[in-house]
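Thread title: Can someone regenerate the structure for this chain?

I was given the following input by a collaborator and told the matching structure tokens would be attached. They weren't. Posting the sequence so someone can regenerate them.
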Amino acid sequence: MENIKEHPILEIPERKKITFTFDGKELIGYEGMVISSALFLNKIKTFGHHVKDDSPQGMFCANGQCSQCNVIVNSIPVKACMTPLESGMIIESCNGLPELPAIDNPVNVGDSDILDTEVLVIGAGPAGLSATKILGENNINVILVDDKSNLGGKLVLQTHKFFGSQEDVYAGTRGIDIAKTLGNIVQKLPTVDVWLNSVCLAVFSDGLVGILKDNNSYVLIKPNYILVATGAREKMLVFPGNTLPGVYGAGAFQTLVNRDLIKAAENIFIVGGGNVGLIAGYHAIQAELEVIGLIEALPQCGGYKVHDDKLRRLGVPIYTSHTIISANGEINVKSITIGKIDENFNIIPSTEKTYECDTILIAVGLNPVDEFYHKAKEFGFKVWVAGDAQEIAEASAAIFTGRIEALKILEEIGIEVREDIDELQNFAELMKAKPPNPIKIEMSFKEEGIYPVFYCNQEIPCNPCTSVCPQEQIETIDDLITQLPFFKGEEECLGCGKCVAVCPGLAVILIDYRKDKDNPFVTFPLELTHEKLEKGKKVTVVSNEKELGEFEVYRSRILPEFPKTQLITVKLPSEIAKQAVAIKLLKSVYNEPIEVYQTSFTEDDTIVCRCERVSVGEIRKWIRAGVRDFNELKALTEVGMGACGGKTCTPLIEQIFREEGISIESITSGTKRPLFIEVPMGIFAKVKDKE
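Best answer:
Regenerated them for you:
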């Protein structure tokens, strides 16, 4: 059993153990947990084998998008990541579809119910919840639909504190707590009807939307207005071994670890240095998993510098201008081979290194889940889009865009809106902007009094420290949210530590020279242990570049407003105090590369279509033969015809076209499927009892 028993941020609930069988073997899981997590709990990462080449199949997205985790439950194929575990379930590996009965009894087919609503909101993540809150507070009838069992979307995976402003997007509050706050508000609104475990299947030209409600009944909704807030799906990369069990998206990892409390790996390697990859690495360390390294193809990580700094301070090697060459192993991941790349993204010879790991997290960006929006527009619905379905950005930006689009719907309905939507839109663009390059700051210290020191050096939208200071002594230049904070010093700092505890980037410390100018007290934030550190315990003090030595804890406290962030005070020599930015509990241990690796894959064997096992080589062959129509490519190779409906492979194939010198504008796009999510025919047809 590999479950997380202690965590510095997450509460570990009492969970009821239940039994089930997988391929005839009795196993133990927890009631309500999805099947994929129950299998990982039992150290099972291979869920079946593909009928085409017997390749091992495992999980990739854990979000119902890719169909890689299919298993057979009571003779019916289901997505393991979306199907709750039940006691006594008979689960089998998916090695192809189960046999259909030779003769089936006739059944009665029922009519689908049709429900009217003013607004249908698809997706209960940060954008959908924010929008529903605005609509419900204006007494608009709303049906809010989400395919998960809890409100919040990706918020329920986010144990870190949010950036932005406290007033607008709950800055300084953890995503898991924002989900609870917004969810509680929405569920209490009398005009809002929340449908969880309910999948939006399709929008139709007659103005109806099909919903698989509670995973067991088909309902048609006729909305006057639709807001699509369906979020994003993870991008994949093309590299040898990319479909091995153990290669999966960073979001899937966060689902296993932060939502389902599964120790999903022993040691991980992360591909991608945006915020998703950097944050996933920090989440892994919080769950006491070893992060072997992180690679980023660009010369510097694209995520917030404070996230980058957090990993470096904790000893995670970050290799910029590097790419993955291969994932190695026969039935699951055993190692990763990486290499350094030049300015043209070509691998520099003799720079290849291989590191042992059992999990590779792909965090190379997201694609919007926007099919519903485009189809609804095509059919003439009055439809809006928010969050990542509108544009990929931080969850704090999704909260903001959900609010804006809800206000636009209110205007369309004819309700007077008092807020300036154009002004809000400008602020949203600020929230969605890519982070600028860090600023080199010369730190200055006055060796007297007590005051906060700010180690944030990137102009990103974030100012919760200015909101929590009880003396209003922390400001930004011209009160702009993207400007770096500073301590005015017009009044003596109280030393309350609120600015240290609230900072999402853990980039604020408190330095106190009042008792000893040569050995000041320095207070740091800590989120890496659930146990309160006792006075006298030794911790490692670090700068952003190196370890500065071991020192004893002088004081440990937890503020009521920030119950999961410890404030650790350490007495340091003055010169070390001027370099110190954080503490950690363990010394860094650097993994050495192994000398030899073997992979059975070549570049042309590398899979681009996971569902139909179509290789890069086959796609290139037909492109070079003159194919420019995605539908023709589909007919020739079956690419895009699998259970995921081409969601994962289409962007990869477009990339191959570009690599072959063919512009996307010159390609005929493929015909979209009428159904975006598969559904058992019996439910879809409202089958009643048998005759």
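The two ends are 45 Å apart (CA to CA).
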